[in-house]
Amino acid sequence: MGHAARVPVLMYHRIGIAHNAWEARYTIGAAHFAAHMRTLAGAGYRPVAIDALVAWLEGGVALPEGACLLTFDDGFRGVREHALPLLESLGWPFTVFLVSDLIGGQDVWTVGSNPSGQTYPLLDADEIRDMQGRGCSFHSHTRSHARLPTLDDADLADQLAGSRAALARLLGRKVDYIAYPYGQLDERVEAATRAAGYRAAFATQPGFNRSDVNRFRIRRLDIFGSDTPAMLLRKLHLGSNDGSLLQFGRYYLARLASHLPGVGR
Ligand SMILES: [Zn+2]
Hints:
By secondary structure, the protein is of the alpha/beta class. 38% of the residues lie in helices and 15% in strands. The longest helix has 19 residues, at 153-171.
């Protein structure tokens, strides 16, 4: 069995029913999510724990071929209802990034974006503590789902360190990782994230992660609720959010061309 040279990180959000086109991007139905997991298993992907991924990036242990990471942003209750039993039965670890001020609340930051204004319930403290013993590791998604680059230095530090401390109290363990809300970051946000004591941070820039990736800009593939299993596999194969057949064809033409004498490059 070989070692992984590049590791994809999958990003999901809510599991449940999408009520409009906006929600469909961030919401995957329970049966459809199960189909995604079967597709991953059938293609030889095996999710690893977030600590194993970061240890690999820090230059430690090798990861097996097929290693990937499953992440869920925001901490929706539907993840517990629909993903936990399945992932627990598969023995697959996964990670949820929590908004620490909104535990037991709703995703109120979406009110201005979701055309219906509908919000959805987030995990409460008891649910989180129960999941922690069942293969789920929890990390930070800031205090209030803030747009970090827009904050002044004091508010930025509060969102980063405040959520880390609150979650450490709730979970009874260290909180080493964060996912930037909306994937928004810049040099100052990255420096403040390091200063707040995090060991690694997850962005939303698509692509694979090689072992030399900036650990404070770990790439993730945005998996949409509308993605068919075939689309999911193409995204993983290409390391791109664009798993369209056109993109897939271009990729193979480019590879083919690079192997022909005098063509390509
Ligand atoms: Zn989020």
